[in-house]
Amino acid sequence: MADLLALQPNLNIRLFLVAPDERRSKVEQEIRRPTFSLRERPLNALCGFIPFNRLAERIAVIRENNLASSLNPDFLSKSVAEYFKREDTTTP
């Protein structure tokens, strides 16, 4: 994902990584790596983590209520994805 953003610096999109909840800590660890967090647009601010089971639950509700045709994709970043805050790298 960082390569995509590096090759297309003017691309203004939200990215999501969907993985099992058990992988959350590994995803957070990778997204917070200095190579990604020290960019002009840090990956942790652009890429949200979505646990697969949470996404599956939301899709089921959408289907049950026939909401797919009126759904705005922003619902992912507003209510499903979580973003890892940047660690403070300054020393007191």
Q: Quick gist of this model?
A:
By secondary structure, the protein is mainly α.
Descriptive overview:
- This protein is mainly α.
- It is 45% helix and 11% strand.
- The protein contains six helices and two strands; from the N terminus they run H-E-H-H-H-E-H-H.
- It has helices at 2-7, 24-31, 34-37, 43-46, 52-64, 75-80; strands at 15-19, 47-51.
- The protein has a two-stranded parallel ribbon with strand order 1-2.
- The longest helix has 13 residues, at 52-64.
- The radius of gyration is 15 Å and the shape is globular.
- It starts with a helix and ends in a 12-residue tail after the last helix.
- The mean pLDDT is 83.
Radius of gyration of CA atoms, rounded to a whole number: 15 Å
Structural class: mainly alpha
Major sheet attributes: 2 strands, parallel
Shape call: globular
Low-confidence stretches: none
Number of helices: 6
Task: Name the beta content range.
Answer: 5-15%
The separation of the N and C termini measures 33 Å
Q: How would you write the strand order of the largest sheet? A: 1-2
| Total strands | 2
Order of helices and strands: HEHHHEHH
List keywords for this structure.
92 residues, mainly alpha, two-stranded parallel ribbon, 6 helices, 45% helix
Write the SSE topology.
Elements (H helix, E strand, L loop, with lengths): L1 H6 L7 E5 L4 H8 L2 H4 L5 H4 E5 H13 L10 H6 L12
Parallel strand pairs: 1-2
